[in-house]
TrEMBL record:
Pfam families: Glyco_transf_4, Glycos_transf_1. InterPro entries: Glyco_trans_1 (IPR001296), Glyco_trans_4-like_N (IPR028098). It comes from the Bacteria. It comes from Jilunia laotingensis. This is Glycosyltransferase. Residues 180-326 form the Glycosyl transferase family domain. Residues 14-172 form the Glycosyltransferase subfamily 4-like N-terminal domain.
C-alpha cells in the first residue's frame, strides 16, 4: 500500500487545515497508509476533527521553519510515496526538503494566486520561494478551473501538472455533528436568523454585510457571525457595530468548535466575501438545504449555485446588492438539492 504523509502547521481553525484533515480521512478510507504530522502543538481548535484511525504525530514547534530537520529525518526513515500540504508555508518547507529527498510532493492551492491577502515582507518572501519551487511539485490541486488557469499562468507551470478537484465535504461528519441537536439560537429561534461563518478578516467582507444589515428594516431579524475576531480589522468591525441602531440584533459568537447546528437551524446563510478560493462553508450550507445569499467573489460561486434554486448571487463589495439580496431571498423555493459527494476518489491524483 502506498504511504502518504499529510502535513499541517497546527490545529488552529482554518479552511485549509480542515481540508487537510479531510483529505487524510478520505485517503485512509481509500486504502492508503496515512501519517498525519502536526508541526505545532498537539491541542487546538480542530483537535476533535483529527481522524481517529490515522497515525498522528505532533512536533510541538512554534515556528514552521524550526521543524525542517525533524521532518527531514522522518521522511528519510518512513519513505512516504507522497507528501501532501494545503498551506503555503508548509508547502514551501516541503518543497525545500524535496531538494534533498527523493519525494513526490502534492500540493493543494488554498486560494487564487491573484488573491493578495497580505503584503508583508514575509509574505513576499514566501511568494518568491513559491514561484521558484512550485515547479518541483509532482502535482498541484486547484479547486476550480479558474484557479487552475491562474496557477498555470502565475507559476509558469504546464497544464498537465495541475489537477482540478472541487473541495469534498464530509457528509458523515455533518450528520454526526447535528444529530439529536437542539436549536442553538435559544430565545431567538422564532426570529429570522442570518448566519455567516468565517474568521473576521477583510477578505470575508464583514463590513459590507454589517452595513447591509444595518439598512435592512426587518426588526425581527438577527445576524449571527461565527469566527475568530483578531487584528485591526476585527477591532474596526466591533467599533462599527457599536454605533449601529441594530447592534442589539448582531451577535458575534467567536470561534465555535461545532458550527453545524447553527448552519442547520439558521434561516439564511450569507457569504459576503471579497476573496475566496473555493468557499467550503457554502457547500456545507447547501448540504443543509439553506437559502443562500453569496457574493460573486470567485466565478465558482455562480457555477455551483446555478442548480440551487434557493440562492441569490450578489456583487462582491456592494452594500446595495447585498441589501437587495436580503429582501429577495425568501421569494425562492428549495428543490431539495444536496451538494455532498461521499465517493470522492483521490486515486487519480495520488498515483
Amino acid at each position: 500500500m502506498k504511504k502518504v504523509l499529510v502535513i499541517i502547521p497546527n490545529l488552529r481553525c482554518g479552511g485549509a487545515e480542515k481540508m487537510s484533515l479531510l483529505y487524510a480521512k478520505l485517503l485512509f478510507k481509500q486504502g492508503y497508509v496515512v501519517r498525519l504530522v502536526n508541526l505545532g502543538e498537539r491541542s487546538g481548535e480542530l483537535s476533535e476533527y483529527v481522524p481517529i484511525n490515522i497515525e498522528y504525530i505532533t512536533l510541538g514547534a512554534t515556528h514552521v521553519r524550526s521543524t525542517i530537520f525533524k521532518l527531514y529525518k522522518m521522511i528519510r526513515a518512513w519513505k512516504p510515496d507522497f507528501i501532501f500540504s494545503s498551506l503555503k508555508y508548509t508547502s514551501v518547507l516541503i518543497l525545500v526538503l524535496s531538494l534533498f529527498c527523493n519525494i513526490c510532493v502534492i500540493l493543494r492551492e488554498p486560494t487564487l494566486p491573484s488573491n493578495k491577502l497580505f503584503v508583508t515582507f514575509k509574505a513576499r518572501i514566501v511568494d518568491w520561494f513559491t514561484r521558484m519551487l512550485y515547479k518541483r511539485a509532482y502535482k498541484i490541486i486547484a479547486q476550480t478551473d479558474e484557479m487552475k488557469q491562474e496557477i498555470e499562468s502565475y507559476y509558469k507551470l504546464p497544464a498537465n501538472r495541475i489537477c482540478v478537484l472541487n473541495n469534498p465535504i464530509d457528509s458523515d461528519l455533518l450528520e454526526e455533528k447535528t444529530k439529536d441537536i437542539d436549536n442553538p439560537y435559544g430565545e431567538y429561534k422564532g426570529s429570522e436568523i442570518l448566519l455567516a461563518v468565517g474568521n473576521i478578516s477583510y477578505a470575508k467582507g464583514y463590513d459590507i454585510l454589517l452595513e447591509a444589515f444595518e439598512q435592512y428594516d426587518n426588526v425581527k431579524s438577527h445576524l449571527f457571525i461565527i469566527g475568530r475576531c483578531d487584528g485591526e480589522y476585527g477591532k474596526k468591525i466591533i467599533q462599527m457595530v457599536d454605533s449601529f441602531k441594530s447592534k442589539d440584533r448582531i451577535h458575534f459568537l467567536g470561534f465555535v468548535n461545532n458550527p453545524y447546528p447553527y448552519m442547520k437551524f439558521c434561516t439564511v446563510y450569507i457569504l459576503s466575501s471579497r476573496m475566496e478560493g473555493l468557499p467550503n462553508v457554502l457547500l456545507e450550507a447547501m448540504f443543509f438545504n439553506k437559502p443562500i445569499i453569496a457574493s460573486d467573489c470567485v466565478p465558482y460561486v455562480g457555477k455551483v449555485l446555478t442548480d440551487y434554486s434557493q440562492s441569490i448571487v450578489v456583487k462582491s463589495d456592494s452594500v446595495s446588492d447585498l441589501l437587495k439580496g436580503l429582501y429577495n431571498v425568501h421569494n425562492r423555493k428549495i428543490k431539495g438539492y444536496t451538494a455532498c459527494q461521499n465517493d470522492y476518489d483521490l486515486k487519480y491524483i495520488f498515483s
